[in-house]
Amino acid sequence: MREQILLQREERDRLLGRSYINRDVALNLKESLDSKFIKLITGPRRAGKSTLALLMVKDKKFAYLNFDNQSLLEKWDEDLVLTLLEEVYPKFQYLLLDEAQNLPNWNMWVSKLYRNGYNLIVTGSNAKMLSNEMATALTGRFIQIELLPFSLGETIMWESIDSEMTPTQIKAIEEEYLYEGGFPEAIQARQVAKNYLNTLFDSIILKDIAKRYKIRNIHDLYDVAEYLLSNFCNLFTYSQLTETLGQRSVNTTKKFCDYLHEPYLFFYLPRYNNKLQLMKKAPQKVYVVDNGFVQSSAFNLSENLGRLLENQVFIELLRRGYDTERTIFYYRTANDKEVDFVLRTGHQVESLVQVCYDISNPKTLKREINALAEASKELRCENLYLITNSHDEILQESDRTIQIQSIATFNHLSEKFPF
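Structure (tokenized):
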């Protein structure tokens, strides 16, 4: 046990010696760290949760335990661990527990540590399990920080650590990001990103889902995952998915979809309706946590530019704090025109966001504008946005103003990288 903790200290020190960028998250990290609440950092595997935790405490005295380590789990003795931590990290102020969900009954141990006055930072890759179990053991005593793969802005920051970027280089990174996404290790090795992301996708399914839930028929689980990936940004229902794939039952299909959501692999967007029952019955739209997973699956991307941009915008909205339970939806007008995103604050519709890769064709522009205009009247919302690949304009449509923004403007790149 002592050897494992010493090895992990070496790992911690090695990680602290690397170059990093500050991450964009919805919460103030300094204020979060200063609080006595447990800091729970969740997100998909390899998105940078451990790095974010390290950056939070890099100038503090802190101890480190990584539970993505079978040797540590096999020799686990909580009393011995605390004794050894005090020896290896004398008078530490914070305790960082990495991938804590791998430890059996982790929440009970964390609860005990909290009661004994330890200031804790906990990371994990299963949002529902972590937050539910933490809520059961420590209601109201933790802060949840969600971390997704790099945004477009963060990707450009990382690429420009050693040199300034020209407008042409930034545009090239924008296009690369659209296809290959923002997982940090994929950014650092674009030449092998496809293979890396394919392996990561398999790892999430096998380690975070199949192993955890003891799923025997992994083939059926993969069928659901591959279907959702190939149909990203499209509508689906559990019954339609069950029939298409020849699954055993709708309940099993729904269970698999829920499992695929928990480790942040897929998200399901409900249709906006003031009547909750109608909202629950309507088809959902499926999104994937990173565009790179689409690239790694070898689908024909030449036909998917619009969907890739829509998926990128959706993930950016999640990064800004919107969630699919309460504040972000899609919408169908009375004339069956679709608006990609309805953003809500409380019970008030705040903004309508449409995404279209290329609006150079007047018919395409008219179609997108008409959908926004109809939805604007029905939902009584005047904050209208149309996100495109490379176009900025303020458009006056009847008595409504529509802000057409390029993806760079939407990501505020001009503020971070003035030319």
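The first helix runs from residue 2 to 16. The longest strand covers residues 338-345.
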